[in-house]
């Protein structure tokens, strides 16, 4: 008699309605994982469910406040792996501590503390950001710097409380440091893998509107909603990656051996880019948008502050192959942005 196939590994994916998380969810399901996806409310639960009709290995649950004590207690039942993407970022924040820092930090430590109570959990993959690597006070420099996983943002709490952009950098930096401090202090049975992407472009799979775009998509929409008389804004973060490659990095992080545990990985495409290159791609691929694009563009990073990042560790240890070019990524994104414009949402 043929033996039964082993049950698929079970993954908890937090923040499943997000731009990156929706791509992760799709790739996890395609790879055969059983996924319990968390969202903040019933509306987001219905939206994610609609995007995956008939998915037999998907369960969607509501965790309204990821930072609340015991928030993940029930969600972690019978879970092997965790992918934690849930973290806030919005320029409308008025209380940086309450709206951005606390949810990011407490959400991360809460899920780690909950995971430590479940012996079945083998690994937590944390979606962080290059914002915890690049030194905020030095942007757009330092010129010639090549960032690696050894670098940490020096942003202070005082700076993080001063502006939403700094608060985002602080939220990612403080949350990631808290995660590694938790691992060192408690030495749980599971290990931790942290992924640090920069600006993320590519197709939009989750439900969005033109007024609620994720930050990187909103930047591109602003570039294609300009005019010939406008200039291209400075490219202060000349690093990018396609969302599909980011999602694949998460799957590889689940599949990797113990040797990648308790490490962080820069997830970025090769080289650097500029907003001028983005405009040039749109001009070539979407000639109908010519009147909406700045006349000025260019191929180099503006000013003397060009820096870069080293993605070799992600290739060598995760086995990640970066499949998508800047042209692939921007073309897919602009197609989706134009579709949103047509629906007037």
TrEMBL record:
Taxonomic source organism: Exidia glandulosa HHB12029
Protein name: NAD(P)-binding protein
Record-linked InterPro entries: DNA_methylase_N6_adenine_CS (IPR002052), Epimerase_deHydtase (IPR001509), NAD(P)-bd_dom_sf (IPR036291), NAD(P)_dehydrat-like (IPR050425)
Entry annotated with the keyword Oxidoreductase: yes
SUPFAM superfamilies in alphabetical order: NAD(P)-binding Rossmann-fold domains
Keywords for the protein's UniProt record, in alphabetical order: Oxidoreductase
Gene3D superfamilies named among the record's database cross-references: NAD(P)-binding Rossmann-like Domain (3.40.50.720)
NAD-dependent epimerase/dehydratase domain sequence ranges: 11-261
Lineage: Eukaryota, Fungi, Dikarya, Basidiomycota, Agaricomycotina
Family affiliation: Belongs to the NAD(P)-dependent epimerase/dehydratase family. Dihydroflavonol-4-reductase subfamily.
Cleaved signal peptide residues: none
Domain of life: Eukaryota
MF-aspect GO terms: methyltransferase activity; nucleic acid binding; oxidoreductase activity, acting on the CH-OH group of donors, NAD or NADP as acceptor
Gene Ontology terms describing biological process: methylation
């Amino acid at each position: 008699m043929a033996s039964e196939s082993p049950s698929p590994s079970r993954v908890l994916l937090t923040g499943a309605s997000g731009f990156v998380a929706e791509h992760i969810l799709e790739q996890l399901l395609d790879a055969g994982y059983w996924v319990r996806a968390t969202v903040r409310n019933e509306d987001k639960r219905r939206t994610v469910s609609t995007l995956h009709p008939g998915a037999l290995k998907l369960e969607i649950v509501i965790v309204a406040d990821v930072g609340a004590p015991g928030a993940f207690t029930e969600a972690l039942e019978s879970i092997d792996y965790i992918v934690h993407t849930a973290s806030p970022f919005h320029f409308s924040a008025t209380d940086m501590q309450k709206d951005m820092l606390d949810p990011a930090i407490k959400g991360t430590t809460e899920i780690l503390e909950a995971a430590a109570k479940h012996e079945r959990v083998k690994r937590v993959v944390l979606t962080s950001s290059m914002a915890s690597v690049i030194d905020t006070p030095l942007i757009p420099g330092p010129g010639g710097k090549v960032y690696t996983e050894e670098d940490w943002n020096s942003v202070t709490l005082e700076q993080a409380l001063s502006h939403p952009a700094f608060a985002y950098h602080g939220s990612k930096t403080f949350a990631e440091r808290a995660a590694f401090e938790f691992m060192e202090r408690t030495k749980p049975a599971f290990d931790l893998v942290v992924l640090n992407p920069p600006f993320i472009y590519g197709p939009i799979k989750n439900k969005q509107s033109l007024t609620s775009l994720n930050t990187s998509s909103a930047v591109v929409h602003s570039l294609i909603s300009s005019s010939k008389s406008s200039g291209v804004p400075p490219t202060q973060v000349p690093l990018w990656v396609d969302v599909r490659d980011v999602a694949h990095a998460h799957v590889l992080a689940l599949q990797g051996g113990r040797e990648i545990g308790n490490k962080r990985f820069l997830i970025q495409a090769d080289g650097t880019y500029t907003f001028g290159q983005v405009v040039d791609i749109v001009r070539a691929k979407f000639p109908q948008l010519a009147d909406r694009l700045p006349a000025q563009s260019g191929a180099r990073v503006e000013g003397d502050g060009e820096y870069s990042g080293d993605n070799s560790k992600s290739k060598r240890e995760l086995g990640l192959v970066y499949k998508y070019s800047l042209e692939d990524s921007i073309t897919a994104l602009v197609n989706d942005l134009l579709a949103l414009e047509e629906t007037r949402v």
